[in-house]
Amino acid sequence: MAKRIFAVTTLTPTATGDTTNLASGTYLGVIQGGAAGVLVTIKEVFLGGQATASAPAIILLSRDSTVGVTLSNGTGATDAGMAGNISTLSAPALVGNIAVTPPQRSATLHLTNHSFNAFGGTVRSLFPEEELPSIIGNTQPQGEVSLSAFTGSSASALMGSHIVYEPF
Predict the structure, then answer these.
(1) Residue 154 in contact with residue 14, Cβ under 8 Å?
(2) 159, 50 contact by CB (below 8 A)
(3) How many Cβ atoms from other residues are within 10 Å of residue 112's Cβ?
């Protein structure tokens, strides 16, 4: 298939505890399988700090214990194919940072921790082909991941992000 990029230009994520609703527009994103049996692999996660003063950020890529329903992109959030000739899937992955029914990050299924200073700091995770985090289907706990701020993150941690992923 073809790689895609879900990007958020700029956002101040709200620090949220595990198993608590992620408020729409306050998390960096969710990726969900488009249907049962749809496989999505995550190739890269990038976060860039845009804060104007020291701002510790704890950002988790985690499986969700409650999946979001009716996902959409908030202001500055985009999803695009990396190649110009990308094919259309019958059940594309769903992405967004707004949901009618909010997702909840699992307390036990964190995949990566991106702790950094959002005052100009950056963090980038590249995953080896044989160890790619993946999503299968569209139900919890394997069908959705979120990228969101964890309790203890700074309230002024303005940042941008992107996730490179590939649906199959």
Answers:
(1) no
(2) yes
(3) 16
CA dist., res. 71 & res. 89, Å (int): 18
Q: pLDDT tens digits for 145-168?
A: 999 999 989 888 999 999 999 998
Spell out where 37-128 has E strands: 39-49, 56-66, 69-72, 77-81, 94-96, 98-101, 104-117, 122-126
Reported residue count of the chain is 168
What six digits make up the tokens of 24? 């729409």
Q: Is the overall model pTM greater than 0.90, yes or no?
A: yes
Q: Which residue has the tokens 């993150």?
A: 153
Q: Give exposure, 115-143, as e/b (b: 16+ Cβ within 10 Å).
A: ebbbbebebebebeeeeebbbebbebeeb
Give the C-alpha separation, 41 to 20, whole Å. Answer: 25
The residue written with tokens 């706990």 in the block is: 141
What confidence tens digit (pLDDT) does each residue in 73-128 have?
Answer: 999 999 999 887 777 777 889 999 999 999 999 999 999 999 999 999 999 999 99
* Amino acid letter, residue 66: T
Amino acid at 49: G
- DSSP code of residue 103: -
